[in-house]
Amino acid sequence: MHIKEEKVERHVLAVLVDNEAGILARIAGMFTARGYNIESLTVADISADHAISRITIATNGPPHVIEQIIAQLDRLVPVHSVRDLTEAGPHVQRELALVKVSGKGENRIEAMRLADVYRARVVDATTESFVFEITGAPDKIQTFVGLMREVGLVEVGRTGVVAIGRGPDVA
Amino acid sequence: MIMELKVAEKSGAEILVQTLLDLGVDTVFGYPGGAVLPIYDALYDHPKIKHILVRHEQAATHAAEGYARSTGKPGVVLVTSGPGATNAVTGITDALMDSIPMVVITGQVATNLIGSDAFQEADTVGITRHCTKHNYLVKQPSDLAGVLTEAFHIATQGRPGPVVVDIPKNVQVAEAEFRSHNGKINPRYQPQIDGDFKAINEAAEMIMQAKAPILYTGGGIINSGPNASETLCQLAELTGAPVTSTLMGLGAFPASSEQWLGMLGMHGTFEANMAMNRADLVVCLGARFDDRITGRIDAFSPNSKKIHVDIDRSSVNKTIRVDLPVIGDVGRVMEQLLAVLKGRKFNAPDYEEWWARIKGWRATNCLAYPESKTEIMPQEAIRKLWEATHERSPIITTEVGQHQMWAAQHFDFEKPNKWLTSGGLGTMGYGLPAAIGAQLGDPDALVIDIAGEASIQMNIQELGTASQYRLPVKIFILNNEYMGMVRQWQELTYESRYSNSYSDSLPDFIKLAESYGWTGILIEDPSDLETGIKKMIETDGPVLVDCRVAKLANCFPMIPSGAAHTDMLLTPEDVKGTMDDNAKALV
Ligand SMILES: Cc1ncc(C[n+]2csc(CCOP(=O)(O)OP(=O)(O)O)c2C)c(N)n1
Ligand SMILES: [Mg+2]
Question: For the complex shown, is ipTM > 0.95?
Fold first, then answer.
């Protein structure tokens, strides 16, 4: 007997929640309890009175699983709304990464050159290292980090994706 | 001079008890311990709240479930921190799976000790996060009244479920101003009650087009209240469609009706499963296409259009794709549907051909069982129990196993809230405490736990609770000396290799009952069955019957896990060969 795997899609969800103790555990725990995937999850409080947080979740799964994920999120008491940005149409996705490369000589020059092409900013420099800050869509970050691996990457931190729909409408 | 309206301060424990009173709570199932002593002390002054002292916290939760299922009111539980809370977890999970309204109050170590591995500390909110509809850790006594009011609202509204409120001991002792909330609800949880008008019209349209419709009903109808059962009867009458139900929904539709097909699913009737398979329209009313119901997904009701009425949006398209979801309270949606159908002058069309086919399936008489003069057949025992008691409209609880399925098949229910069984979680040890809770909710009812000799031992200590509160609960054990359901699966799947399914070293149930002040009755011979049952009913106070039944009887019909409805096993002769690994991997 073998266990079959299904084809998956990537979706980005915007979830508005009450900013209360345990909410992250509730959301993340729901994903593990039901066997759903989290690619990235970001959260920050977004309302003037600090009552509401926005959680951006990048997830993947077959379409029927994505549908269940949304319904299961929606059912949690502190969740106000769930929006599938991937489904809703055009939207902007951004992520920030801090990338540290170390080394001397040719690699160092190449790293600098690539950073320039990818519009990464130098936020720290020593004679044998750089820290670059780069923002952009996740695949751009992915490519940049991949390139840096070849020229001395020693450390990387990524924020995970935040996203928002294009145009005047509100999620 | 400005007059200041001073609101009196009360301790957290006092606020808790006062709020329970405001919310109309009159019964609490509980067990004391260090972390809830302040609450127990407050209860001492409030005789209006009846505290039922169980013998194990798991039983408190099942008793609360039994109380809730039979009365429709939320069950309330009070337990201490650590082991008190962890013992309650099984019953909380049971209530989540079966959508039972329940509020569980747990004591917790003082807020300054949380996280320090203090004595009897457990991360109750963490442990119960996935087995509750919602849970809280209350850190200020001033939050208590609001949290409790919201907890009751969440437990009872929408799809009901358990809510845990964890209260540190210092919060029970500290004081805060107390203003009664008087059951005022918090708007952040507002489930949709009315069905969408367009969807209702579409549903009516689909019903009017159908040639072979079936109403597939579930526990949602019971949860929606007795009115929903009445509305279901009207809908059945207006449409003339056959009705089947899940295990959880039994009693919502009268078993004596001509339109009743019996339960469907793994141990459902041949006619119910065949009708589901051949229907051209399935109207799912407050059920959730559970795997015990569907069998093999791709073979489930392959030619039908499907309407799914559910208050929980996450139930829709979870396992079975449906053509039309209607989100709302099933009782309310049925009323809306009735109104539209009546408005369009719809009236029970002639489903002659459909009913003729159903009659053909009925003729297999799938619930027939072999007769015996020497042994008591368990099915026969249930039939006789029904014959002797049905006029009193008894409340039946069960444990889990073959006896549970035989009870579902052979005990006919006419009304809702009379059948209390652990369906979703399948918890052995449910029946006795649930019977205790049901009896407290309805002191005059005849309450019988139909049990197995293995299951009953899982909460046997509750014999003492029934004695203490003079509850005339009856336990009817179908004693086959086996974990019969496990043995049956081993017979069918593992070539009768009966690994650890024999009930060895059983107690003398009669003596055991007597030692708790119960009456014990032994029934061994088929000729004593009727008199034994009669004696059980006529004996005042709690009675335990040890009914020795055929040891190797199997529960049929049966759809093996992962098989299609049309691949039903009707008799032992239908069982051929051994299962492959794919079938073995299914539960
Ligand atoms: C708490 C728990 N443990 C294990 C099981 C698995 N299980 C299901 S039925 C059953 C046997 C029940 O035996 P008994 O109570 O004698 O009932 P019978 O099937 O013989 O009627 C077992 C062990 C369960 N449902 N619940
Ligand atoms: Mg048994």
Answer: no
